[in-house]
Amino acid sequence: MTETFGADFLVRWLIAVAGAVDREADRLTELDSAIGDADHGANLKRGLAAVTETLAKEPPATPGAVLTAAGRQLISTVGGASGPLYGTLLRRTGKTLGDDERVTRARLAEALGAGVTAVSQLGGAQAGDKTMLDALVPAVEGLRESFWAGRAAAEEGAVATVPLRARKGRASYLGERSVGHQDPGATSSALLFAALDDTARAEGAA
Ligand code: ADP
Ligand code: MG
42 Cβ partners below 8 Å, 6+ apart? Predict the structure, then answer.
Protein backbone atom coordinates (compact mmCIF):
# COMPACT_ATOMS: atom_id res chain seq x y z
CA MET A 1 0.00 0.00 0.00
CA THR A 2 1.28 3.47 -0.86
CA GLU A 3 1.71 5.70 2.15
CA THR A 4 -0.15 9.03 2.20
CA PHE A 5 0.51 12.22 4.15
CA GLY A 6 -1.97 14.73 5.57
CA ALA A 7 -1.80 18.40 6.57
CA ASP A 8 -0.25 17.49 9.94
CA PHE A 9 2.75 15.94 8.17
CA LEU A 10 3.41 19.13 6.21
CA VAL A 11 3.13 21.17 9.41
CA ARG A 12 5.64 18.87 11.14
CA TRP A 13 7.96 19.24 8.15
CA LEU A 14 7.93 23.04 8.29
CA ILE A 15 8.46 23.00 12.06
CA ALA A 16 11.45 20.70 11.50
CA VAL A 17 12.78 23.12 8.86
CA ALA A 18 12.43 26.01 11.32
CA GLY A 19 14.37 24.01 13.93
CA ALA A 20 17.14 23.12 11.48
CA VAL A 21 17.46 26.72 10.26
CA ASP A 22 17.57 27.86 13.89
CA ARG A 23 20.45 25.48 14.61
CA GLU A 24 22.27 26.29 11.34
CA ALA A 25 21.55 30.04 11.20
CA ASP A 26 25.13 31.02 12.06
CA ARG A 27 26.52 28.75 9.35
CA LEU A 28 24.08 30.13 6.75
CA THR A 29 25.00 33.67 7.69
CA GLU A 30 28.70 32.82 7.55
CA LEU A 31 28.29 31.43 4.03
CA ASP A 32 26.34 34.54 3.05
CA SER A 33 29.05 36.77 4.51
CA ALA A 34 31.58 35.20 2.09
CA ILE A 35 29.59 35.83 -1.11
CA GLY A 36 26.64 38.00 -0.04
CA ASP A 37 25.55 40.34 2.73
CA ALA A 38 25.54 38.04 5.78
CA ASP A 39 21.78 37.94 6.33
CA HIS A 40 20.63 34.58 4.96
CA GLY A 41 20.48 32.85 8.37
CA ALA A 42 18.65 35.77 9.97
CA ASN A 43 16.29 36.14 7.00
CA LEU A 44 15.16 32.53 7.09
CA LYS A 45 15.02 32.38 10.88
CA ARG A 46 12.66 35.33 10.97
CA GLY A 47 10.53 33.98 8.13
CA LEU A 48 10.22 30.49 9.53
CA ALA A 49 9.42 31.73 13.02
CA ALA A 50 6.49 33.62 11.47
CA VAL A 51 5.48 30.51 9.50
CA THR A 52 5.52 28.34 12.63
CA GLU A 53 3.41 30.90 14.47
CA THR A 54 0.83 31.13 11.68
CA LEU A 55 0.53 27.35 11.40
CA ALA A 56 0.14 26.97 15.18
CA LYS A 57 -2.59 29.61 15.33
CA GLU A 58 -4.72 28.32 12.48
CA PRO A 59 -3.56 24.96 11.19
CA PRO A 60 -4.87 24.68 7.60
CA ALA A 61 -6.89 21.57 6.77
CA THR A 62 -5.08 20.25 3.69
CA PRO A 63 -1.41 19.75 2.69
CA GLY A 64 -1.83 22.28 -0.11
CA ALA A 65 -3.27 24.91 2.22
CA VAL A 66 -0.41 24.42 4.72
CA LEU A 67 2.19 25.11 2.04
CA THR A 68 0.25 28.01 0.52
CA ALA A 69 -0.13 29.71 3.92
CA ALA A 70 3.56 29.14 4.73
CA GLY A 71 4.65 30.54 1.37
CA ARG A 72 2.50 33.62 1.76
CA GLN A 73 3.98 34.21 5.21
CA LEU A 74 7.56 33.89 3.93
CA ILE A 75 6.94 36.38 1.16
CA SER A 76 5.53 38.94 3.56
CA THR A 77 8.16 38.45 6.31
CA VAL A 78 11.49 37.99 4.53
CA GLY A 79 13.02 41.02 2.86
CA GLY A 80 15.91 39.31 1.07
CA ALA A 81 15.82 37.54 -2.29
CA SER A 82 15.27 34.21 -0.54
CA GLY A 83 11.87 35.24 0.92
CA PRO A 84 9.99 35.66 -2.37
CA LEU A 85 11.88 32.68 -3.87
CA TYR A 86 11.14 30.21 -1.04
CA GLY A 87 7.68 31.73 -0.66
CA THR A 88 7.01 31.07 -4.34
CA LEU A 89 8.35 27.52 -4.01
CA LEU A 90 5.90 26.71 -1.21
CA ARG A 91 2.96 28.60 -2.66
CA ARG A 92 3.20 27.04 -6.08
CA THR A 93 3.74 23.60 -4.56
CA GLY A 94 0.66 24.12 -2.37
CA LYS A 95 -1.47 25.33 -5.27
CA THR A 96 -0.40 22.35 -7.34
CA LEU A 97 -1.49 19.97 -4.57
CA GLY A 98 -4.95 21.56 -4.68
CA ASP A 99 -7.58 20.42 -2.15
CA ASP A 100 -6.43 16.83 -1.69
CA GLU A 101 -6.76 15.70 1.93
CA ARG A 102 -3.77 13.39 1.64
CA VAL A 103 -0.84 13.20 -0.76
CA THR A 104 1.70 10.56 -1.71
CA ARG A 105 5.44 11.14 -1.91
CA ALA A 106 5.20 10.94 -5.71
CA ARG A 107 2.51 13.63 -5.73
CA LEU A 108 4.56 15.81 -3.41
CA ALA A 109 7.59 15.41 -5.68
CA GLU A 110 5.51 16.36 -8.70
CA ALA A 111 4.10 19.46 -6.96
CA LEU A 112 7.53 20.50 -5.68
CA GLY A 113 8.70 20.16 -9.28
CA ALA A 114 6.13 22.78 -10.27
CA GLY A 115 7.29 24.92 -7.33
CA VAL A 116 10.91 24.70 -8.45
CA THR A 117 9.92 25.70 -11.99
CA ALA A 118 8.19 28.77 -10.53
CA VAL A 119 11.36 29.68 -8.59
CA SER A 120 13.35 29.44 -11.81
CA GLN A 121 10.82 31.63 -13.64
CA LEU A 122 10.75 34.25 -10.87
CA GLY A 123 14.52 34.56 -10.46
CA GLY A 124 15.58 33.76 -14.03
CA ALA A 125 18.13 31.20 -12.78
CA GLN A 126 18.82 27.58 -13.75
CA ALA A 127 20.77 24.78 -12.12
CA GLY A 128 24.47 25.62 -12.53
CA ASP A 129 24.05 29.33 -11.72
CA LYS A 130 25.14 28.77 -8.08
CA THR A 131 21.78 29.35 -6.40
CA MET A 132 19.26 27.37 -4.35
CA LEU A 133 18.22 25.72 -7.65
CA ASP A 134 21.44 23.70 -7.62
CA ALA A 135 20.06 21.85 -4.61
CA LEU A 136 16.32 22.08 -5.40
CA VAL A 137 16.38 20.66 -8.94
CA PRO A 138 18.23 17.40 -8.09
CA ALA A 139 16.35 17.12 -4.77
CA VAL A 140 12.99 16.91 -6.54
CA GLU A 141 14.38 14.27 -8.89
CA GLY A 142 15.66 12.29 -5.92
CA LEU A 143 12.37 12.60 -4.07
CA ARG A 144 10.64 10.75 -6.92
CA GLU A 145 12.70 7.77 -5.77
CA SER A 146 12.69 8.17 -1.99
CA PHE A 147 12.84 10.73 0.83
CA TRP A 148 16.43 9.68 1.44
CA ALA A 149 17.40 10.14 -2.23
CA GLY A 150 15.87 13.64 -2.15
CA ARG A 151 17.94 14.50 0.89
CA ALA A 152 21.17 13.08 -0.53
CA ALA A 153 20.71 14.80 -3.90
CA ALA A 154 20.04 18.17 -2.24
CA GLU A 155 23.15 17.89 -0.08
CA GLU A 156 25.25 16.83 -3.05
CA GLY A 157 23.87 19.71 -5.12
CA ALA A 158 24.68 22.21 -2.38
CA VAL A 159 28.28 20.97 -2.05
CA ALA A 160 28.62 21.05 -5.84
CA THR A 161 28.06 24.84 -5.82
CA VAL A 162 31.52 25.38 -4.29
CA PRO A 163 33.52 25.45 -7.56
CA LEU A 164 30.78 27.32 -9.48
CA ARG A 165 30.82 30.99 -10.41
CA ALA A 166 27.59 32.76 -9.39
CA ARG A 167 25.50 34.00 -12.29
CA LYS A 168 22.42 35.18 -10.35
CA GLY A 169 21.70 37.05 -7.14
CA ARG A 170 24.00 39.13 -5.00
CA ALA A 171 26.91 36.66 -5.26
CA SER A 172 27.06 37.26 -9.03
CA TYR A 173 28.40 40.78 -8.35
CA LEU A 174 31.61 39.08 -7.15
CA GLY A 175 32.25 37.34 -10.48
CA GLU A 176 35.27 35.00 -10.20
CA ARG A 177 35.56 35.73 -6.48
CA SER A 178 32.36 33.78 -5.84
CA VAL A 179 34.26 30.59 -6.78
CA GLY A 180 35.36 28.42 -3.84
CA HIS A 181 32.38 29.12 -1.57
CA GLN A 182 29.22 27.09 -0.99
CA ASP A 183 26.03 28.93 -1.89
CA PRO A 184 23.97 29.84 1.20
CA GLY A 185 20.60 29.30 -0.52
CA ALA A 186 21.59 25.87 -1.84
CA THR A 187 22.70 25.05 1.70
CA SER A 188 19.35 26.04 3.22
CA SER A 189 17.55 24.07 0.47
CA ALA A 190 19.51 21.01 1.58
CA LEU A 191 18.20 21.61 5.12
CA LEU A 192 14.65 21.64 3.70
CA PHE A 193 15.05 18.17 2.20
CA ALA A 194 16.96 16.80 5.20
CA ALA A 195 14.05 17.88 7.39
CA LEU A 196 11.59 16.23 5.00
CA ASP A 197 13.48 12.95 5.26
CA ASP A 198 13.65 13.26 9.07
CA THR A 199 9.91 13.94 9.24
CA ALA A 200 9.10 10.95 7.02
CA ARG A 201 11.47 8.76 9.05
CA ALA A 202 9.74 9.79 12.27
CA GLU A 203 6.48 8.47 10.73
CA GLY A 204 8.19 5.26 9.75
CA ALA A 205 7.70 6.25 6.11
CA ALA A 206 11.26 6.68 4.87
P1 ADP B 1 19.81 38.43 -0.39
O2 ADP B 1 20.69 37.90 -1.49
O3 ADP B 1 18.77 39.38 -0.89
O4 ADP B 1 20.61 38.95 0.77
P5 ADP B 1 19.44 35.94 1.05
O6 ADP B 1 20.80 36.19 1.59
O7 ADP B 1 18.39 35.62 2.05
O8 ADP B 1 18.96 37.17 0.15
O9 ADP B 1 19.48 34.72 0.03
C10 ADP B 1 20.58 34.53 -0.83
C11 ADP B 1 20.36 33.25 -1.60
O12 ADP B 1 19.24 33.40 -2.49
C13 ADP B 1 21.50 32.88 -2.51
O14 ADP B 1 22.49 32.13 -1.83
C15 ADP B 1 20.85 32.09 -3.63
O16 ADP B 1 20.82 30.71 -3.34
C17 ADP B 1 19.43 32.60 -3.62
N18 ADP B 1 19.17 33.41 -4.82
C19 ADP B 1 19.50 34.70 -5.03
N20 ADP B 1 19.08 35.10 -6.25
C21 ADP B 1 18.47 34.03 -6.82
C22 ADP B 1 17.82 33.78 -8.09
N23 ADP B 1 17.70 34.74 -9.00
N24 ADP B 1 17.30 32.54 -8.31
C25 ADP B 1 17.41 31.57 -7.38
N26 ADP B 1 18.01 31.75 -6.18
C27 ADP B 1 18.53 32.94 -5.91
MG1 MG C 1 21.93 37.82 1.85
Answer: 25, 29
pLDDT (tens digit, 9 = 90+) per residue, 98-154? Answer: 999 999 999 999 999 999 999 999 999 999 999 999 999 999 999 999 999 999 999
Tell me, in angstroms, the distance from the centre of ligand 1 to residue 89's CA.
13
- Residue 126 CB less than 6 A away from ligand 1: no
Closest approach atom of ligand 1 to CA 44: 7
Whole-model pTM: value is 0.97
Domains of the chain: 4-200 (1.25.40.340)
Phi, psi of 5 (to 5 degrees): -125, 135
2 Cα: distance to centroid of ligand 1 (angstroms): 36
CA 104 – CA 179 distance, rounded (Å): 39
